[in-house]
Amino acid sequence: MTTVVLGLGFEQYLEVVAVRVAVLHAAAGTLVPLFMVCMLTGFFGRNRSFGEGLGVWKFALFAAFAMTIPYVTVAALLGPEFPSLLGGLIGLIIVVFAAQRGFLVPREPWDFGPRSEWEEDWMGNVDPEEELAIDRPNMGLLRAWTPYLLVALILVLTRVPQLPLQEFLSGIAIEWNNIFGTEISEGLQPFYLPGFVFLVVIVSTYFIHRMTRQQIAASWRIAGGQILGAGIALLFALPLVRVFINSGPEFNTTGLESMPITLAEGAAALAGNEWPFFAPWIGALGAFIAGSNTVSNLTFALFQFATAERIGAIPEIVVAVQAVGGAAGNMITVHNVVAASATVGLLGREGALLRKTIIPMTYYCLISGSLAYIWVNGIGLNLGTIAFLLLAAVLVVAVLAIRRSAARAPAPESETTR
């Protein structure tokens, strides 16, 4: 059974939404590298100077465009599976190539202060000297990159409609029709899922990297520990999402609308035409609570779509900004913060990290909500345009204040003792 949305097949509609997601990410994400560098120098630099981060603004913007332009291009040409993978890969190659040749790289290097001056909150239980002492086999650059290149290659080969692999793999399906006597039917294409591609590459990597049995076992143990937490959450979240979505009059005897439709009616009545501005915050909240952008989108995409229909907005824009907000919410997702903290030995310091990551998350939701509103309603004397101009003014004032304070601060040392 093929689902039709606004006259398009579901896969075609998903591609339309994916392009809009990519455009919003590209617009909102252009300043993210500079944001990151300024936060690095402001919170962790010896002089606590955000202005030192501005010294790399040319290279930071170049790095952003090196990723966002391929990202949008790939989304438009190849579909929703590829932008993050190929956009990031292409951007990384461009940036590394440029950095090696000193293109737009500041003349004055920056480094952290001496380790003895670091704050207690920075110090983890991972000893860098012990990590360097671990005996690892020498590996060439091509061999190290081969798994990533294989993932990209296989995804392209299996997703391009002109090639026979797509039809063959998607034709192998496990279907469950009329589940428990209802009108609900579901299907699974196990060999067409992106996860199957990763499994193929994982097995290939064992031979390409000449891994020992102990290394293979260790990789499964580490990956299994990471998957377990997300798997448990999804095990309970996905059935809840399906109940949430399939709660309409087709599946109940009360004649009441489904929960997403009911929520959409309330949102439309509360926010009206201003809803696109608030849509990314719902995505971020969903990701924060559920711990996953995927679960956030599964839970709230229909709600966002129905709300857009009720207020006369463009549904694909509102659904797209929901996904963008969910991606921003990943910055403050608890299990992501815990996993990152555990990786660098900072367990117990998650609160300090959350207080910092909420800053770019807030920026991301504000800018994407403003742009989505303008995309739906146009430029004018409206909430989206005013919010965008205010945010731009705040950023300009912040940059001027940071530069003024940086001019009064002592020059950073080019070399420091670790």
TrEMBL record:
Alphabetized UniProt keyword annotations: Cell membrane, Membrane, Transmembrane, Transmembrane helix, Transport
Protein name: L-lactate permease
Entry keyword Endoplasmic reticulum: no
Species annotation: Rubrobacter taiwanensis
Listed PANTHER family: GLYCOLATE PERMEASE GLCA-RELATED, L-LACTATE PERMEASE
Record-annotated membrane-spanning stretches: 22-44, 56-79, 85-105, 141-160, 191-208, 220-245, 278-303, 358-376, 382-402
CC terms in the record's Gene Ontology section: plasma membrane
Gene Ontology terms, MF aspect: lactate transmembrane transporter activity; solute:proton symporter activity
Membrane topology recorded in Swiss-Prot or TrEMBL: Multi-pass membrane protein
Family: Belongs to the lactate permease family.
A Pfam match: Lactate_perm
UniProt subcellular location: Cell membrane
InterPro entries: Lactate_perm
Function: Uptake of L-lactate across the membrane. Can also transport D-lactate and glycolate.
